[in-house]
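Issue: ligand-bound run for acetyl coenzyme *A - logging full I/O for the record.

Environment: standard queue, default settings, no custom constraints.

Inputs:
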Amino acid sequence: MSEKTVVLTDAASNRSTALPVVTGTLGDPAFDIGKLNKDTGYFTYDPGFMSTAATKSAVTFIDGDQGILLYRGYPIEQLAKHSNFLEVAYLLINGELPKADEFAKFDHEVTHHTMMRESLKNFFQGFHYDAHPMAMCMAAVGSLAAFYHDSLDINDPAQRKLAAIRLIAKMPTIAAAAYRYSIGWPIRYPRNNLEYCSRFLHMMFEVPSEPLQISPVAAKALDLLFILHADHEQNASTSTVRLVGSTGANPYACVAAGIAALWGPAHGGANEAVLKMLAEIGDAKNVSKAVERAKDKNSGFRLMGFGHRVYKNFDPRATIIREMCHKVLGELGVNDPLLDVAMELEQAALKDSYFVERKLYPNVDFYSGIIYKALGIPTEMFTVMFAIARTAGWVAHWLEQHETLDAKIGRPRQIYIGAPNRDYVDPAKR
Ligand code: ACO
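Outputs:
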């Protein structure tokens, strides 16, 4: 915290307060308004948290104007090039890149917590066959608290760490089970001899009738997508995890809430929405019509995969993913006409003054769906894929929150616009 303060005075009442200026290692400074209401009688109004930091955090930094994304200080481009998802998960949770023995231990722990209890497996039978996999995942993750109630002491750092490992380990198992159930295939057990992404692909696609050859290209592409989606500072789902976490709720309940927040089309549901939109557009020749529709506020239609609350220049993840999309489709020999539609749409929007003026660029989800499709992942699973990756970020933030001594329950204020105080009216007189 700096010594600088800004004094705010209400001329009418002559009440004033000195607001300390809070600065982090990077990013804009902020006013600490904690005493504002007590000193002046005012509080602040900021729908959508456009100018409000809810916490201090050392996990991830974003500079939306410069298109910078750092996990624990490391640029996303370098992690995408040199690291792997599990190492990134370790980094997010622990703050430092692991030494070889630290990584081996972490990998061993995650690998040996991937199984789910048989009774949890049976839960899936209770869902209707066409339930959305996000609904099944959210319920299954929330239910983990019922299986590990002997290790839910959030005041014990060892139990917190164990919960974090369990969540990272079991998310792919739960996600694959939701998919297998929805298509009527037998649920697969995790194979310990495979690494994280290959193990997931095995649980998704292995059939009893023949051995599965897991494509190293597919496993590598998935790993890269997971790195890009692993964390994104105080986004809606992470803020949800932290808000629920601030009440002292158990980690499984917190992450289930995060999954619920991620599901919305304005957030993680966008990758599914992008593919549906591209399929609806159908052909590159229909792109200009779609762009016109997106510009018409009355149409209720937005270009999915375009725009971002924080990135107003470009989304660095989109730059990586765009390049990867072409590479993966080429290496897998997939010729997807939706990629042509996507490229045409991107070009058309980037040239259009509506999108230029509003600084609307393709975000990470614009291309991720096309890659998932090329990997054989069905559209309904796209947001689930996001949830697997983001679990690393969610648990990193949840752990950080519980390591912070002055953490408070999250409780926003409101501007009340309802009826003033009035007397109850007898039913006969209404
Ligand atoms: N298509 C058309 N117009 C858009 C789009 C879009 N995708 N996104 C924003 N706009 C317009 C708005 O209508 C608004 O125009 P106006 O100023 O004339 O009223 C202006 O751009 C600003 O939009 P807001 O909604 O105020 O911007 P906000 O920062 O609140 O929203 C969001 C960001 C939710 C991502 C928005 O751009 C959107 O809905 N995009 C499509 C959904 C999407 O791709 N979501 C994924 C986000 S990334 C992620 O979660 C991984």
